[in-house]
Specification:
Blueprint lengths: L2 H19 L4 H28 L1 H15 L3 H24 L14 H10 L22 H13 L11 H17 L12 E5 L2 H20 L5 E5 L5 H8 L3 E5 L9 H7 L4 E7 L11 H11 L2 E5 L7 H6 L16 E4 L12 E5 L2 H4 L14
Parallel strand pairs: 2-3, 2-4, 4-5, 5-6
Antiparallel strand pairs: 1-7, 6-7
Bound molecules: pyridoxal-5'-phosphate (PLP).
Length: 379
């Protein structure tokens, strides 16, 4: 290689570049790149703000922020907010005067039960009157409730973490999961005997776990690191919690005229970061079943996860179908369904604090577990 030729062409390039640049002020040469970087980063933040919030929401919040710049407007809004806070606090305060704020100096001993009875007598009469709050009929001291109470008191001391000590509870969990799965399609041939799950403390926890598992499954399967999920507007607020806890961008898509998930609208939000779509069977606000089969087809065609929220319907729909009601497909027999949440503590008629999360296969469920590497995780 001829280095002297290379050197001379480099130096002539340098000379002509310097001659060209000498017509500009040195300060301008310094300021221009800085200004460009500054401008580019401004444009980038604007774009990412719009992509985070959606164009409509971005415009609305820009408008609201500018309205607040008008003198007096912010002060007025703050004063109105304070009024609401004051009202909320004052209504609770007088009632709370008699509440314990520290451990009593002397123990209450047997008086505890009397005190509980007295406080309980102030609760609203709920028997048979609180739809969506208490799912079991009758009063808490008879019928199905007395069985629940007796069973709970037999196992109140157990710690299911210690499988070796409480084998009974471990067996019960496995049986509840298996029986729930059997109602929801685990017996189907093409489920390949892979459907699995766990008991949780409620629908919200089942949903949180399903979303977390889907996020990590899609990260390992497709390398998605900026996860997004799409849910119908009618879906439960647990998905907002999941999105916040697990740093997932959430798109809530308006429902159609029948208050069902709008499959076409949902499709428009799918992009390469989408990990999950959701359908409810039925949703809590309207009691309406989303088009699960169509959503399953959509999820399959894009290779993304699909969670069916059966918190409310899991122990109703299988029996309604058996009774001959025309129930559309809603369970693991639908291709594309990857997980489900089913509340035992709703129409499973179990005590509060029990739900089941189910997965299509072990490959998804393994992302639910957290593996610790140090001894401290055992404490
Ligand atoms: C009840 C319900 C939930 C959440 O359940 P919790 O047990 O209250 O946490 C989620 N989705 C639907 C459709 C529900 O009905």
């Amino acid at each position: 290689m001829d280095f002297s030729a290379l050197r001379s062409s480099l130096s002539s390039f340098r000379d002509s570049a310097n001659t060209f640049l000498s017509q500009f002020e040195p300060l301008a040469l310094l300021a221009l790149p800085l200004l460009t970087v500054f401008l580019a980063s401004g444009i980038r933040s604007c774009l990412s703000y719009v992509s985070d919030k959606g164009l409509k929401n971005a415009v609305i919040s820009l408008f609201m922020s500018s309205v607040k710049l008008i003198p007096g407007v912010r002060r007025y809004i703050d004063a109105e907010k304070q009024k609401v806070v004051d009202q909320l606090q004052s209504s609770g305060n007088s009632k709370r005067d008699s509440w314990l704020k520290e451990l009593p100096l002397k123990g209450l001993q047997g008086g505890v039960i009397d005190k509980l009875k007295q406080e309980k007598s102030n609760d609203a009469p709920w028997q048979g009157k609180c739809s969506g709050t208490v799912y079991i009929g009758g009063s808490e001291s008879e019928g199905h409730f007395s069985i629940i109470n007796e069973a709970c008191s037999m196992f109140a001391h157990t710690n299911p973490l210690h499988l070796d000590v409480f084998q009974s509870v471990v067996r019960f969990e496995a049986e509840v999961v298996a029986m729930t799965a059997a109602l929801l399609g685990s017996g189907e041939k093409d489920s390949a005997g892979q459907i699995c799950g766990n008991m949780t403390s409620g629908g919200t926890e089942s949903i949180l776990l399903a979303v977390k598992s889907s996020r990590d499954y899609m990260k390992s399967k497709k390398g998605i690191t900026r996860a997004e999920m799409i849910i119908p507007e009618s879906a439960h607020s647990a998905y907002d919690k999941a999105a916040q806890y697990f740093k997932i961008k959430l798109w809530r898509v308006p429902v159609n005229k029948e208050f069902q998930a709008d499959v076409k609208a949902i499709r428009r939000y799918i992009n390469r970061n989408t990990i999950l779509i959701v359908g409810s069977a039925p949703g809590f606000p309207h009691g309406i079943i989303d088009p699960i089969k169509e959503l399953g087809e959509l999820a399959s065609s894009y290779g993304i996860c699909f969670h069916v929220d059966l918190c409310l319907g899991g122990f109703v729909l299988p029996f309604a179908r058996k009774l001959g009601y025309p129930i559309p497909p809603f369970d693991f027999s639908v291709e594309g369904v990857t997980s489900m949440s089913v509340d035992v503590h709703k129409y499973g008629l179990a005590p509060k604090g029990t739900s089941v999360v189910l997965y299509r296969n072990h490959d998804i469920r393994k992302h639910q577990f957290v593996a610790g590497k140090t001894l401290s995780v055992l404490t």
